[in-house]
Structures are given as structure tokens and as C-alpha cells.
Amino acid sequence: MKRIIILLLALLVLLTASPLFAAGGGQQQQGPRVFRYACNQPDGYPTVVGALAFSKYVEEQTRGAIRIDVFSGAVLGDERVTTEQTQTGDIHFIRLGVTFLASISPQVGALGLPFLYRDREHMFKALDGPIGDEVLKMLERQNLLGLAWMDAGFRNFYNNTREVKTLEDMRGLRIRVQETPLMMGLVRMLGASPTPMAFGEVYSAIQNGIVDGAENNWPSYISVSHFEVARFFTTSGHVASPEMILVNTRVWNSFSQEEQRIIKAGALHGANVQREDWLRYERDAEARARSAGRIITDLSPAERVRFTEAVQPMYQQPEYAPFADLIRRIRAVQ
Ligand code: GCU
């Protein structure tokens, strides 16, 4: 009996230490309820700047009752691990892009299909309207709720083997991709050979010749120093992978209505800060790559058409064909 009482007491201590219990319990709070937010980019990167603005807003507006600690630089683990942990609620918030989310929801992944947006303005018109709002809610069955959209620009190919000017130059290049069928298919359709791996392993994989290169936006080419090991950069802009601030749904439901209002407003505020910082960082990243003597190649309009045509079969793949209507609506946004 004594043992059972001790066990019950221990369980109670564990439960009351959990933010979920504290949030739902409606008890007098001792100190802040603390939540974890994961981002795999290093400090100073726009998504981290935005996350800190989000955290500050929430802390101020809740008068310190809710604290969101931002863990940058993948200290909580790589994207696959931290995503799973956010789905189980061990991590509470995370920032992820749609090309990565394609691995758990092809419907959300449809927003990361190649050459979908005409330009950034088109993308944000779609994301900041009813379509974007719908997509934020599409991950409910995966225990995730999107709160706001951040910018991640357009992704480009870079490698350390040769300059890519034409579709033929892609042939046979071993390109690291995110661990999703979407990105693997895309790279394969361009004639290259996709190698899925976590973001944090890419630098040494290029350096050691395990892959020839990778693909990413300008900011990431600089933030994790890929430019040091991959000197040929082609402005293919083949895909945009807009990013979401996500929260675990059980954590979300544990907040009061007023807290939810503050957290949503905070996420939108953080995303706005991120989007502004993004434009500055993107310009600086390109300038830095150029001053480091990287070989920057623009695709000719004719080659861009060839790249675009080569990846069209992606839209007919069994995973994405069911979302033809969503894609049509995105394309129709003016
Ligand atoms: C971008 C994004 C990262 C992601 C990476 C990738 O750089 O900011 O969060 O991990 O793409 O290609 O894996």
C-alpha cells in the first residue's frame, strides 16, 4: 500500500511538472509554463529571429505566464526527430517547410511542387488568403496545427563538380535532398541522382564527395556554409518551400481561448518579423556568395522552360494528382 501511495505521489509530481497539465488544470500558477520550440537553423537566421519575436510577444502578452524557449541550430535533433517529437508533444512548437512536410502529408506537400508559383508575391497572396489558412489546418491528423507562414524564398541547385547551365549538366549529379519522395522525384526528373539526408550532414557530405551538391535557398547556402564546399550555384528557383510555425494540437487545445488568441497573434507577428528579415538576409547571402568568388549561373529563359517541363510529371504522380483542384486554385490566384 505504502509503495502504491509513493508511486501515485511520484506520478502526481510528474504530471504537475508538465506544461500540458498546468495549462489545462486552471490552477494557481507558480511561475511560467515553459514550452519548447525547435528550429534547425543557427542563431541569426531569419526563422530564428522570427521565433524569438514570437516568444517575446507571447511572454509579454501573457505577463510571463507562458514562456516559449527557442532551441535553434538543431540542438533538439534533426528535422525528422524533432518533427516526430512535436507530433507526440515532447516538443511543443516547430518550424518546418512544405517540401519537408510532404513526407507526412502529400496534400501540404502539394504547395511545394516545382515551379508552382510565378514569384514571391504570388506565393504570399495564396498563403495569406483562404488557401493558406486551409493548409495550416491540414495536419490535424498528424497532431500538428500551423499558426503562421514564414518565407523560405526559392531553392536553387549548387554543387562542386561543374557549372549547371543546361538540363544536360544536371545529368548524373548526386544531389542531396530532404528525406521526402517529393524532392527525390523532382531531382530524378531533372536527370540527377537524389541522395536523401538530414540538413546537418550536408556540409561534410559535399566536402567528402559523398554527394556532388545540394539545393537550397540563398540564405541556407550561407547560414550553414555550404558555399564553402560547393562553388557552382545555379539560380534555378525550381521550388519554393514556404515554412510554417506549427504547434502540437494537444498542446494547443490545452491553452485557454485567450491564450490561443495571443499565441496566434504572436506567431503572425513573429512571421512578419521573419519575412522582413528574410529579404535583407537573402540579399546579403547572395552578395556574400559573390564576394567569396562563387560561380553564379543564371538559367536562360529557354533552359528554365526545359527544367519546368521536365518536372511536370510530378503533378500527375499518384500522391499529388488528388490535389489538382488545390493546385488549380493556387495557380488562379492573381
Ligand atoms: C532549409 C530550411 C531548413 C531545412 C533545409 C533542408 O534550409 O531552412 O530548415 O532543414 O532547408 O534542406 O533540409
Question: Overview of this structure, please?
Answer:
The protein is of the alpha/beta class and 334 residues long. The chain folds into two domains: 31-153 and 241-282, D-Maltodextrin-Binding Protein, domain 2 (3-Layer(aba) Sandwich); 154-240 and 299-332, Bacterial extracellular solute-binding protein, family 7 (D-Maltodextrin-Binding Protein, domain 2), CATH 3.40.190. The protein has 17 helices and eleven strands. The protein has helices spanning 2-17, 19-25, 46-61, 79-88, 98-101, 106-109, 120-127, 130-136, 167-170, 181-189, 202-207, 218-223, 226-229, 249-253, 257-291, 301-310, 324-332, and strands at residues 33-38, 66-71, 93-97, 144-150, 154-159, 174-177, 193-196, 213-216, 232-240, 243-248, 295-298. The strands form three sheets. Strands 2-1-3-10-4 form a five-stranded mixed β-sheet. A four-stranded mixed β-sheet has the order 8-5-9-11. Strands 6-7 form a two-stranded parallel ribbon. Helix 3 runs antiparallel to helix 15. Alpha-D-glucopyranuronic acid binds at residues 40-41, 79, 97, 152, 178, 199, 216, 220.
Overview features:
five-stranded mixed sheet; D-Maltodextrin-Binding Protein, domain 2; single chain; globular; binds alpha-D-glucopyranuronic acid; 18% strand; alpha/beta; 334 residues
Biggest sheet features? 5 strands, mixed
What's the name of the CATH homologous superfamily of the largest domain?
A: Bacterial extracellular solute-binding protein, family 7
Quickly give the structural class: alpha/beta
Low-confidence stretches: 5-18, 21-27
Rg, Cα atoms, Å: 21 Å
Bound molecules: alpha-D-glucopyranuronic acid
CATH topology of the largest domain: D-Maltodextrin-Binding Protein, domain 2
How many domains comprise the coordinates?
2
Arithmetic mean pLDDT: 93
Number of helices: 17
Strand order of the largest sheet: 2-1-3-10-4
What is the level-2 CATH architecture name of the largest domain?
3-Layer(aba) Sandwich
Which class of the largest domain in CATH terms?
A: Alpha Beta
Strand residues, percent = 15-25%
- End-to-end separation: 70 Å
Q: What is the tally of beta strands?
A: 11
Strand and helix order: HHEHEHEHHHHEEHEHEHEHHEEHHEHH
Shape: globular
Helicity range:
40-55%
